[in-house]
Fold:
Amino acid sequence: MTTIEAVKLRRILDSRGNATVEADLWTATGYGRAAAPSGASTGTHEAKVRPVEEAIRDAEERLIPDLVGRDAADQAGFDRAIRDNDGTPDLSKVGANVAVALSLANARAAADAYGQELFRYLGGCFAAETPFPLGNVIGGGAHALNATDIQEFLVVPTGAPSAADGVFANAAVHRKVRDLLVSMGKGSGKGDEGAWAPAIDDLSAFEVVHQAVTAVSDEVGFSIGMGIDVAASELWNDGAYRYRDASRSPEDQVAYIAELMDRYNLIYVEDPLQEEDFEGFADLTSLVGDRCLVCGDDLFVTNPERITSGIELGSSNCVLIKPNQIGTLTDTWEAIELSHTHGMDTVMSHRSGETTDTTIAHLATAFGCIFLKTGAVGGERIAKLNELIRIEEQL
Ligand code: PGA
Ligand code: ZN
Structure:
């Protein structure tokens, strides 16, 4: 029933118009499909993506014959087969894009063979709650030209009675932000993830989002928190964080972020320091970790070894999880388990280049992530948000 009978890889479009990998996988009674996303502000230590066409050609020749005939219900074995076939620590031979599409499609096919939704198959009876949606409403950095230095200004509806209410609250904040920007004469287009990309400085962006959050929170009657993804590795150059109007040493950066946190009541800060600064992360976490989630994205790249270093040094209290950063579902699960065992929260995340694949909504629910970070609007973002609404209905 769960023996893999056929696997098909193809080249499809992502939301930036680039090629990415989609996998279809069949067992006698199950079928699964998944696609690889891709980043723009990628971490140095991420698993390596290969050019789509050659990666597919090689996988058809050298990898897929190893996978056909395996048991799809043995996810760890399936993922180990990919790793053994690859033989490198960063999946550079198979390509992380091929690996993650295959790994997730396999889980979907196994779930389908058992007649279960993916979140139920993976989470069992303990999958009882959906995460809160975490969405960006203004952004710049590597995701938009001539916009803010800080990559993402985020909102999370922490008081929402349901995930569905939260999804609509985030969309309302996104709309309110546009109205405020237009009234300032700063109306703009959107960046890669659907957030507004106005030509304003970071402090103005904080003010706009704060105003929007306050207005929408009053309307809907529940609290909405603010957060940021600094994506600080993108600002880090020659020993300092280079903002358009300032340069900050690592110590200044910690003080600056802590000040922003207090001024705007930030409940979530991602990558406040560059990807090698485990100690700087620890300094910030000891300052503000009692009232704010300090989250490592490029710092950890969903890699259990790097998360272990972070645990030893007290670098953060939260870990960003992107399955394609590490390459397989088993590794993703291990990263989450390790984080939760050590008292850290996890946030399941999209990439800036996405498809309409909805798998991360299932993973976030199955594995008990606190947030699902997947934008606020846009076809490839709402695919996941709407799936979260459907999942919630079944809990
Ligand atoms: P990326 O950015 O998908 O372009 O890497 C998202 C993030 O930094 O969280
Ligand atoms: Zn990030």
The chain has 14 helices and 14 strands. Residues 163-183 form the longest helix (21 residues). The first strand starts at residue 4 and ends at 13.
